[in-house]
Structures are given as structure tokens and as C-alpha cells.
Amino acid sequence: MNRTRLHDCHGDVDRVPALLARVEAEGDAEAWAELGHRLVLEDDLVSPAAFGALPGLIRLAPKTARALRLAGTILRRAAGHHGCDELLAGCADAVADFRDLLDRHLRSRPVDYLATFVDLLAAKGEYHWSAVLGDFTDDFYHLPCPHCSVEVTIAIGDYGRYSAIRDWHVGDVDRRELRPVSSEELCGTGRWMHETAVRDGQEALADGIAHLFGRAECPHCASVFAIADEYASANRPVLR
Fold first, then answer.
1. How far apart are CA 168 and CA 187, in angstroms?
2. CA distance 74 to 115
């Protein structure tokens, strides 16, 4: 497949290669802005040209934050219905390099730590957590209790860490404190997320992850369940 003849979000096939050459040579803001609009749209649409441009953006990423962010945006939207699985698979080596770059950036404890963290989740193929993870200052997760099917609100933020039943007139009622998981109990993606946050001194993020991957009590039936497992089961996107 010719990666230089892929249509962008405006239906053109020749504008993206020209813009890539322009930003690599000149780096001007106008070209970067147009390139972003042609590769991705606000409604989460990502064009075939975006995957064609991804290796080039990743090559530029060590030199410019614009390329770093745009490559991350494309990967975060890779879970959508873009029909470009073959193109994405062809970027495997470049994405592996991008994961290494993002991890090095995290180790420097940058101002954009959370944005880089969720980009790395996407680069690892963890599209679900990349899409929903917040900074745990005002995070809410809504999921059905796996035992009685009542919708449970999970709050993890500065105002508390609890499960509750949401009443839209009076707020969260019948609150039950969450039970955070210990670092020794974590495994898989949760363990990587927590260990990375701890490694980089992101205490609030690490504590939020420990609660997100912990357990909650349903206020309606008093059953206890794993928050992350149930939320992921109910909300994980289906790749096509």
C-alpha cells in the first residue's frame, strides 16, 4: 500500500506529504495546525493519512513536542472504526520506538505527565484506560453492579474515594469507602500503571490507580467487586 497516496480528513491525498515535508524542514505553526486538522477531527475521526504519517511523526517526536502530541493523538484514536488495521500494523516498529520515547519523557517528570502517560497507554494498546484515565482530582466512573445490576457511581477524587448510588436531586447517597489494592496484589496493566507512577514520583496518580484497581461495595446489595474489571467489561471499546 502506498502510504503517500492516502486520503486525509478532507479527502485529499497529496496535502499531508507536502505538510510533513514542510514541518520537518521549517517547523512553522501554520503547517502544524493544518496537518493536525487533516489527520484527525474533533469527533474522534482519524484518517488513513494519519496512519501513513505516523512513522514520520514518530521520527520527528524527539525534536518537537508538536509531533509527540500529534502521534499520541492518532494512537489514542486507533480504537475507533477507522478501517486501517493493516496500516496500523505496518507501524509496529515505529510505535515500539514511540513507547520508548514516551517512557523516557515520563522519567523526566514533565509538566505534561498525564498526557504523556495516556499516550503511552495507547501506544501499548491499552486504548480503554488511555481514553478514561484522569488525574483523580474529580473522577467518576459509572458501572452496573455485577450482582444486582444497579448503577453504581465510583468516585475517586479530592472530595473522597467511595461507591454510591447517584441521586440527581441530592447527590451521591449511601456512600461506601473504596478498598484500594496493595502494590503486591496488582498485576498486568494495573501493576504497570502503578509502578510507573510510583517510579516517577506521581503520588496522587499512583494512589488513584490503587483505588481504581481496588474493590468497591455495592450500596444496594452489599456485594464487593473489582472496580477496574467491571468498568472495563462494561466500557471497553470493540476494535474493528
1. 36
2. 13
